[in-house]
Each structure stands twice: as structure tokens, then as C-alpha cells.
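User: Could you check the structure of this?
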Amino acid sequence: MELLNKLDTHLQLLQDKHQIRQRRAVETPCAPRLTVDGRDMLAFCSNDYLGLAAHPKVAAAMHEGVDLYGAGSGASHLISGHSRAHVQLEERLAEFLAPHLADARALYFCTGYMANLGVITGLAVGDRNTEVFSESLNHASLIDGGRLSRTTLKVYPHADVAALESMLADSTASNKIVVTDSLFSMDGDLAPLPQLLALCERHGAWLIVDDAHGFGALGENGRGALEHFNLRSPNLVYVGTLGKAAGVGGAFVAAHSSVIETLIQRARPYIFTTAAPPALAHALLASLDIIAGAEGRERRAHLNALIAQLDDGLRLQKWQRIPSITAVQAIVIGANEDAMRASAALWEQGIWVGGIRPPTVPVGTARLRVTLSAAHTAQDVAQLVEALNALERRS
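Assistant: Sure, the predicted C-alpha cells are below.
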């Protein structure tokens, strides 16, 4: 069949370029020590930064949530799917982030992808006099949100504050929206948020910050990039993911109450979908207790110690580790086949580190993406460091 032949040809091209992605079946709860396709593995590839995905208190809260609310919500939020658990979660998130946002309110989405689509298209409000300024290394969901906003979309170079300032100064749009990741998930570096916020305040622009990889893991109290940089402004629109450091699922937008009410009325990914199961929201209340409490601070301190241990232990000569103070540690190797060969060699040693290739990263920068978790031990990291140093020497 000609249609299928076209698909097969495309798949073969991906195979030839070492770009075929592969799924593996994990048979145990998310943790550093996993059983994967029947093999015992030490994993450095999840985004479970605080080790809460299988935390007993969070799991118990999930069970309790099912007992209280059942398995599903049954409808969209604006019909009958908006549960008391969703209300409580949104109130807790708003209270948690209130030190950084004026008149804070929060809105819970099913996924981070949906939150980013919803916040950009919702704030654009179909205004032909809107311009969206997007960071060049933004996550795919932010890129897609900009495209779906049906506004003028402009891309500024990575972390280039001067270029963005020039673009904002030249803009005559009445509604300006700057969109950036806080922590770039393939490199591990942080956006210059204080400078970006100052620009947005000066030019009357919104600053949407996708803190997917920072919420819970950054800041003394886990309030993410806003706390890390000590930011506060009514121009801020904050997106946090709840399936990474929080360990469960979904995402939220936190901002001034007028922003949130606008999203409730206009954000199509929120309006036209079944609400997430209330049990997830109930479990997330337990996650927030841990993140904001003494245990959360202890877990972040341990995570930071592991990051320092990796930094101190790696002795790379040919591969390039991108400097990062975060749980995301990228080691650039170069060619697709070399990165996948390195990932496979680690796999054979019982260590699971993902190989990242184009189009996720630029051509010629295929890499190993190491992610650390507070659930790792110093011995786990020592094993990884020894394996990486030995592997590079042999490459």
C-alpha cells in the first residue's frame, strides 16, 4: 500500500540517522533502582528530582483520594468535573507562591503541555495586535503555544537579553508576551530571569515562565526559579509542572487573579477537556506538604550535594559537560551514533542514561542527559562518575 510505504520510508530514514526512539517497559515504581524489560538498572533519566513519585506519604494520599473521589472526574472543569480536591490544590498552590505573585491565584491543568498551550493562547486572546517573543531553546509546548496563538511570533537568541530588548523596543504591539523556560531541560542552564523581568516591566509585557524543571527543586522552600532569583511582579505568569519534582502529574498556572480568570474563560486546553482525576490533586496536597516542609529542604540539600559530587568527580577530556547547578547534567558528545553508542555501553553496565539527539537538540550536539534525584545515594553517583570517566577514555 502506497500510504504505508511512505511511512516505512520515513521510518527507515530516521533509522539511518540514528534518530529512532525506543520505549522500554519499567516494571517497578519510579526510583533510582528499577527493573526495566526484566533487567535491574540504576537509572539517571527520570525527572523525579525529589524522589517523591513513590514516596509512601504521596502513595497513601493517592489511595485516600481514590477512596474519597473515585477513579475519574467524569467531565470538564466547567461542567461537573471540578472537584473539591482541585479547589484545595489550587488554593494551596496560590498560597505557596503568594510571596512572588500579586493577588495570586492558581489553575490546575491535566499536563504541562496543555498548561503552556493554554496560557499563551489564553493571554493572546485572539488579539491581532499581540506579539509573542519566544526563547530559541524553549520547550516544544511553548513553541506550539506561540504558533497556535495566531499572533506575530518572534524568536530571540538563547539568553540574549540585549536582542530581546531591541525587539521589545521596536514592537508597536499593544499586547506583548515574552515566553521562556526557566531551566532549559536539555542543557541544565537557567534563563536570566531578573533581566527578562526588568525588560518586561519596562516595556509593559507579560513574562511567562515555564518552571517545569525548577518547581520544587529550586529555592530554599522549593518555590522554584521565582524564589531562586527572588522575583515578584504582577507581570509574572508562572507555569509549574507537578509530574517532576512533585512526583505525581499535571501542571498549573499561577498569576494575578485576573490572569487566571481570563484563562478559565479563554484557554481552550483547559475548557475543552475532562478534568484530571481528583485523586491526583489529593495526592499532590501531600507532595506540597513535603516540598514546603523540613523534609523538602533536606531532600534539596542532598540533591545539591549530589550535583556537586558529579561536578567534582567527572574528568572529561573529549566530551563536554555543560556547566549546571541543577539536577539536569548534559554531556555533549556530538554525533548521533556516538551518543547512542555511549548510552548503550552504559546500559550494558546496568546504568540507564538517555541519549538525546536532534531534533530535540541541535545537529552535532547529541548528548547524554543525566538527571539526578534526591533518591540517589552518593554511592549511586560515584558508580555513574566512574563509568562515565572510563567510557570516555575508551571512546
